[in-house]
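A further point concerns the way the authors explain their paired sequence and structure data. The central task, working out the structure tokens from the amino acid sequence alone, is never made concrete. I therefore recommend that a typical entry be quoted early in the introduction. An entry of this sort, consisting of the sequence and the corresponding backbone structure tokens, reads as follows:
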Amino acid sequence: MLIRYLSKEKFEWLLSDHGLYIGSAAGQSDPKEGLYDSSTITKALKHRMGDVNQDLFSRLDDLNENLMQLNRKDNYLSSWFAGVTETAEMWNEYGSDGVALISDEQLLISLLPEPITNASSFYEIAYSDQKKSIAMNEPLKFKEEKYRHEKEFRLVVDMNRYSKLTGFDREQFGTVYADGKPSYENDLFTCCMSEQGKRQSHRVIKTKGDGYVIAYDLNRIIKQIRLHPSASKDDFLKVEERLKQAQLDVTVQVSTLRTIER
């Protein structure tokens, strides 16, 4: 089971967007998201070689730092709680006045629309301070141990790659040319994409503020909606009515942490 806790405001955004919002790694509430020790390589080299060329080591550190920061800016996330049951801590932190969306990994993965599938990854987060500090290859797969209670499962979309494959938002990410053609018009570059994916590449995602909205079918990925533990009967009725307005046929339940009379 996957749970996404949303405040009342973010729940309203979800319904208005008709899709799932993703935000950049650099813009997450965790200020260390995607960060690691960018001098990891030079430390290893110094250990083996000694201080051969300090200027070269310094330049390599700068290069790795820049690559790390670009990775944080280019990758966009949707985070879910992969716990078996709800927790009061997660409600208080992320959805104290809102709702929890209930889904599962299979739905989130299988219903991700093409061709976003060609620029995405799914991670069950590992919590280790030591591994995070050296996670150069998969920096978005590790978080500090203090976040262990979040039991995070996340969708990661490399928007730079998506732009190169499709031409979407190329004003933001620039254009790469291959054999005199933009990459998204070169069959050798786009051969990983299906014809359907090529046709709908600009319809399955849209820009919103500093992030993007993926056109997931909310009726299919949301199995149930649960109201926050302190919800009233009036809250329950308002959510049901709002779902009808949004044309979502999703069952509404109260939080398992508290039962209210309907």
